[in-house]
Amino acid sequence: MEQKDVKQREKKKGIDVPPAVPKPLYKEDGTLQITEAVLAQVLGVTSSLPEGTLPEIAFAGKSNVGKSSLLNALVNRRALARTSSQPGKTQTINFYRINGMLYFVDLPGYGYANASQAAKAAWGRMIENYLHRSTQLKAVFLLVDIRHEPSANDCMMYDWIRDQGLRTVVVATKLDKIKRSQTAKQKKLIRETLGLLDTEPVIPFSAETKQGREEIFSAIWDMISSPSLGAE
Ligand SMILES: Nc1nc2c(ncn2[C@@H]2O[C@H](COP(=O)(O)OP(=O)(O)OP(=O)(O)O)[C@@H](O)[C@H]2O)c(=O)[nH]1
Ligand SMILES: [Mg+2]
Q1: Ligand 1 within 6 A of CB of 88
Q2: How far is the CA of 59 from the centre of ligand 2 (A)?
């Protein structure tokens, strides 16, 4: 069967078909270059998991922490992922295909107080199902707000990601909202509360100033090159 026919058949089944020739993700000097970012798949509470073949890197964290904003900052697009000052904006699991090489996966936030119990439970199951079952998921960025001590939910999420044998990198968002002199103290608080291993970084980041973007790119590089803690 021709490549074109295979593509059409897969598309009908709702399966994303990446381009046959992916674009390089890194320039020769080692810096990341994102030349293509497209919303390739959307997973709702009733959808089954996509049968993708590319590696996935997910962005998790409480509602309104800045997951979609971070994703936009990484791909240098203002509104690829929809953001809102109202919590609970992202309600589906959105797969953004990057350079035909990997997916950035934008997750709905947890702890969205205004959602009904039933909706919260359904989203919780959807996120858990994805994090638990995806065979392509290589690593998770866990986002916490740099201004606050991580919540019990953040700690649970961190423990759970680690228990799954996934690599995790913590990003402390909204860096522009604190004084520079507070950064070290807040980082320490986040490290201690989550109980991070010495090898696990906390990357302060601001979607406003883009500070921290390069560190996140190099973390992505590490994640792709040595994807999972595995069952060693
Ligand atoms: N000042 C500042 N505001 C930010 C930053 N990141 C996100 N925001 C704001 O925080 C709000 C929530 O951002 P989103 O990116 O939609 O958050 P989210 O985590 O995707 O939220 P849900 O989809 O509801 O889970 C928006 O008003 C953003 O503009 C940041 O680094 N600095
Ligand atoms: Mg969002």
Answers
A1: yes
A2: 9
Query: How does pLDDT run across 47-76, given as a tens digit for each residue?
Result: 777 777 889 999 999 989 999 999 999 988
Higher pLDDT, 65 or 118: 65
Question: With 80 as the cut, is the pLDDT of residue 101 above it?
Answer: yes
Written as six digits, the tokens of 105 are 């996966």
Q: In what order do the strands lie in the sheet with 37-43?
A: 37-43, 93-98, 102-106, 56-61, 137-145, 167-173, 202-204
User: What distance in angstroms lies between residue 64's CA and the mean position of ligand 2's atoms?
Assistant: 7
Q: Is residue 4 part of a domain?
A: no
Q: Whose CA is nearest to atom 12 of ligand 1?
A: 64
Q: What is the chain's mean pLDDT, rounded? A: 85
Domain assignment of residue 3, yes or no: no
CATH number where 156 lies? 3.40.50.300
Q: CB of 89 closer than 6 A to ligand 1?
A: yes
The CA 86 to ligand 1 mean position distance, Å, reads: 9
Q: Which phi and psi angles does 173 have, rounded to 5°?
A: -85, 170
> How many distinct structural domains can be found in the chain?
1
Does residue 110 have a pLDDT over 90? no
Question: Can you tell me whether residue 92 is helix, strand or coil?
Answer: coil
Is 139 inside a domain boundary? yes
The answer to whether residue 230 sits within a structural domain is no
Domain that includes residue 133, residue range? 35-225
**Mean pLDDT along residues 34-52:** 81
Ligand 2 mean position, distance from CA 56 (Å): 17
